[in-house]
Protein backbone atom coordinates (compact mmCIF):
# COMPACT_ATOMS: atom_id res chain seq x y z
CA UNK A 1 0.00 0.00 0.00
CA UNK A 2 1.26 3.48 -0.85
CA UNK A 3 0.04 6.37 1.32
CA UNK A 4 0.83 9.99 0.50
CA UNK A 5 -0.12 12.79 2.88
CA UNK A 6 -1.56 15.62 0.80
CA UNK A 7 -2.53 18.03 3.59
CA UNK A 8 -2.69 18.30 7.35
CA UNK A 9 -3.82 20.75 9.98
CA UNK A 10 -4.73 20.73 13.65
CA UNK A 11 -8.02 18.95 12.90
CA UNK A 12 -7.47 17.05 9.65
CA UNK A 13 -4.97 14.80 7.89
CA UNK A 14 -5.74 13.90 4.28
CA UNK A 15 -3.95 11.14 2.38
CA UNK A 16 -4.13 9.59 -1.06
CA UNK A 17 -3.97 5.78 -0.92
CA UNK A 18 -2.98 3.35 -3.65
CA UNK A 19 -3.38 -0.37 -3.08
CA UNK A 20 -1.03 -2.89 -4.70
CA UNK A 21 -2.13 -4.20 -8.11
CA UNK A 22 -4.98 -1.67 -8.28
CA UNK A 23 -4.76 1.44 -10.45
CA UNK A 24 -7.54 3.27 -8.58
CA UNK A 25 -6.44 5.76 -5.93
CA UNK A 26 -8.72 7.03 -3.19
CA UNK A 27 -8.53 9.84 -0.66
CA UNK A 28 -8.91 9.41 3.10
CA UNK A 29 -9.39 12.26 5.55
CA UNK A 30 -8.88 11.55 9.25
CA UNK A 31 -10.65 14.09 11.43
CA UNK A 32 -10.20 15.22 15.00
CA UNK A 33 -12.81 17.92 15.53
CA UNK A 34 -12.22 20.42 18.30
CA UNK A 35 -15.03 20.99 20.77
CA UNK A 36 -15.64 24.69 20.22
CA UNK A 37 -17.99 26.41 17.81
CA UNK A 38 -15.29 28.46 16.05
CA UNK A 39 -13.01 25.46 15.63
CA UNK A 40 -15.86 23.46 14.10
CA UNK A 41 -16.55 26.29 11.65
CA UNK A 42 -12.89 26.18 10.57
CA UNK A 43 -13.18 22.41 10.20
CA UNK A 44 -16.22 22.66 7.91
CA UNK A 45 -14.47 25.30 5.80
CA UNK A 46 -11.44 23.04 5.54
CA UNK A 47 -13.64 20.11 4.44
CA UNK A 48 -15.27 22.31 1.79
CA UNK A 49 -11.83 23.40 0.56
CA UNK A 50 -10.68 19.78 0.39
CA UNK A 51 -13.78 18.83 -1.61
CA UNK A 52 -12.81 21.44 -4.22
CA UNK A 53 -9.16 20.31 -4.35
CA UNK A 54 -8.42 18.14 -7.43
CA UNK A 55 -6.22 15.87 -5.28
CA UNK A 56 -9.44 14.83 -3.51
CA UNK A 57 -12.34 15.74 -5.80
CA UNK A 58 -11.18 13.52 -8.66
CA UNK A 59 -11.13 10.39 -6.47
CA UNK A 60 -13.38 8.35 -4.22
CA UNK A 61 -13.12 10.01 -0.78
CA UNK A 62 -13.82 8.79 2.73
CA UNK A 63 -13.86 10.91 5.89
CA UNK A 64 -13.17 9.16 9.20
CA UNK A 65 -13.18 10.46 12.74
CA UNK A 66 -14.27 9.98 16.30
CA UNK A 67 -16.19 13.12 17.17
CA UNK A 68 -16.61 11.99 20.78
CA UNK A 69 -12.90 11.47 21.44
CA UNK A 70 -11.25 14.15 23.62
CA UNK A 71 -7.66 15.18 22.90
CA UNK A 72 -7.22 16.52 26.43
CA UNK A 73 -9.36 15.96 29.56
CA UNK A 74 -10.29 19.67 29.53
CA UNK A 75 -11.88 19.10 26.10
CA UNK A 76 -14.47 16.82 27.69
CA UNK A 77 -15.97 19.79 29.53
CA UNK A 78 -18.92 21.50 27.83
CA UNK A 79 -17.96 24.94 26.50
Strand order of the largest sheet: 1-2-3-4
Mean pLDDT rating: 87
Largest sheet: 4 strands, mixed
Number of helices: 2
Number of strands: 4
**Class by alpha and beta content:** alpha+beta
Shape type: elongated
**Helix percent band:** 25-40%
User: Uncertain regions: pLDDT < 50 for 5+ in a row?
Assistant: none
Strand residue content: 25-35%
| Distance, first to last CA | 41 Å
Rg from alpha-carbon coordinates:
14 Å
- What series of H and E elements makes up the topology? EEEHHE
Structure description:
- The structure is a single chain.
- The chain is α+β, with helices and mostly antiparallel strands and 79 residues long.
- The protein has a domain at 1-13 and 33-68.
- Helix content is 25%, strand content 33%.
- The protein has helices at 37-52, 54-57; strands at 2-8, 12-18, 25-31, 61-65.
- It has a four-stranded mixed sheet with strand order 1-2-3-4.
- It is elongated.
- The mean pLDDT is 87.
- Residues 21-75 form the Endonuclease/exonuclease/phosphatase domain.
- This is Endonuclease/exonuclease/phosphatase domain-containing protein.
Amino acid sequence: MEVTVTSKSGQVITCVVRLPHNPVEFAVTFIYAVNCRYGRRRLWQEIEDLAANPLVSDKPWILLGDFNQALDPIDALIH
